[in-house]
Amino acid sequence: MRKVAVVSCLPSFVENLEPRCLLAAALPDSPRIELDLNGGWRFIRQNVAGASEKMFDDSAWQEIRVPHTWNGTDAQDGGNNYWRGDAWYRRRWRAPEALAGKQMYLRFEAVGQSAEVFINGAKVGEHHGGYSAFVFDINPYTKVARANYIAVRVSNARSDDLAPVDDDWNLSGGITRDVTIFATDTAHIDPLDYAAPGVYLKQSNVSASSATVDARTLLRNTGGRQRKFDVIATVYDAAGNTVDQVTTRRTIDRKSTAELTQVLTISNPKLWDGVRNPYLYTAHIELRNTEGTTLDSITQPLGIRTFSVDPNNGLTLNGKYYDLRGVAFHPDRPGKGPAVSDADRAQDISL
Question: Where do the structural domains in the chain lie, given as residue ranges?
């Protein structure tokens, strides 16, 4: 029986902290390369013609780090100077040689409220909505071992097509959460489904004796040749013991995507029971080539439970009434607005 050590689990209710269980080295390290792009940005709070161009001169702009908002003060000081409109962010980024032959993605955890993203003068894509992550495939626009220029036009101007239109809080503008670039093998788990992990766990037939988990994985091959690999889905208990494992071999044509659902069974499941007993399993999905080399992997927390909601009896969790309580959580700090750090969020939750 394979065993791993579960080090810790981050709570899923902490906003912008992706819930996950952190496993010791007995699990293969993810081969993904992740680069922090929070530093080195230049910013101007106005719409500037030509700012998307590769060689645009932004030397006079303000130097900043993200997360950042231009409403950190004016939306809080009561001075009737709350500003909404367009602004620009730019950053130079040299793609390291280690990314040659890899598939590269640019990820924004959130931009308030709309964003248009350019690399080397070419438009990569756009996103609307200030509270959700988004990911772009940047291989067609990026040169490895050379300087690349990322430009983002951000707007929090009023738009009747973008909710909320009228609200009782400030719609701050800016790159308000982290920015990263990550690189994978050309055969990998697809991150382009609304920036979700690409692994979806659906449980059914939950009883005292067993539970069924459907692990649906989105697969992508961006390379120029057909690829063959194994998809290995494993569930571990909280002690790191292997509960079930399924291996499926897949072949994916060049420049194509596929979807795979694997069925796992948990015998005598321990239920996730809220604060009474927040027990978590861990699901690990791994892609290995025919030589056994790990190409990509994703780890997700898994809580087995049943629930129902009744207008008269409220929430029932695992067959017992559960007193459901919530909070209207708005990340907001003096001078920062919503551009808060992970440490700020953890402190808020710990209060």
Answer: 6-14+188-305, 34-184
| Token couple for 154 | 């951000």
Q: In whole angstroms, give the CA distance from residue 117 to residue 124.
A: 6
The stretch 184-202 carries a mean pLDDT of 98
Greatest alpha-carbon pair distance for the chain in Å reads: 66
Hey, is 100 helix, strand or coil?
Answer: coil
3-state secondary structure of 327: coil
At 130 the three-state DSSP class reads coil
Angle 124-127-128 from CA coordinates, rounded to 5°? 160
Which residue type, as a one-letter code, is found at position 346? Answer: A
What is the CATH number assigned to the segment(s) 34-184? 2.60.120.260
DSSP 60: T
Please give the structure tokens belonging to residue 110: 């959130």
Residue 280 token pair: 């978590």
User: Tokens at residue 104, please?
Assistant: 């590269």
Q: Which residues contact 165 (CB under 8 A, 6 or more apart)?
A: 158, 159
Q: Which tokens sit at 197?
A: 């992990």
CA distance 158 to 291: 54
Architecture (CATH level 2) of domain 6-14+188-305: Sandwich (2.60)
Beta-bridge partner residues of 187: 221
Element (H, E) at 345: helix 342-350
pLDDT reported for residue 331: 81
145: Cβ–Cβ under 8 A, 6 or more apart, which residues?
Answer: 94, 95, 96, 97, 100
Backbone angles phi, psi at 163, to 5 degrees: -80, 150
Q: Which of 109-118, 151-160, 259-268, 329-338 has the lowest mean pLDDT?
A: 329-338
What is the pLDDT at residue 28? 58
